[in-house]
Amino acid sequence: MKNLLICFAVLTTLFSSCKSNDNPTPTKTKTEYISAKTWIIDNLTVNGIIMLYQKGNTQNLYDLSKVTFNLNSNGTVTGTDNNGTAITGGTWAFNSDQSKVVLTNVTIQGGLALSGEFTLIQLNDTNFDIQGNVSYMGQTGNAVVKMIAK
Predict the structure, then answer these.
(1) Whether the predicted model's global pTM rises above the 0.85 cut
(2) Architecture of domain 30-149
(3) With left for phi above 0 and alpha for psi between -120 and 50, is residue 114 left, alpha or beta?
């Protein structure tokens, strides 16, 4: 009986000292999510109806298959357009409540310009989706730009 009590006491001590997670994974900030990846365009829809680009589609209105974006932690935007030309001179920042991304001078060869405030739809390790006005060959429209991590 005495041995049984000792075993019970030892087991109780072992189980009560274990914690489910001594080191929880810290939550990433939005800046960490946005600047940790190279982003490619998955699809681009303008005015809710015109599918300007869909990754993998062979009949896109505009080829964005080689375009990459890096929104760097220092506030610059770099990347490449479909011709291999570097995207430089662009900047980005969050608005005060981090619900919008403000892009300035982000232009892709061929006339697609992303400048202004874009509502942040989704941002995580694999997706970066924004909505706002884009300019394309002299036309402006409300676009949803869905990007995925490369």
Answers:
(1) no
(2) Beta Barrel (2.40)
(3) beta
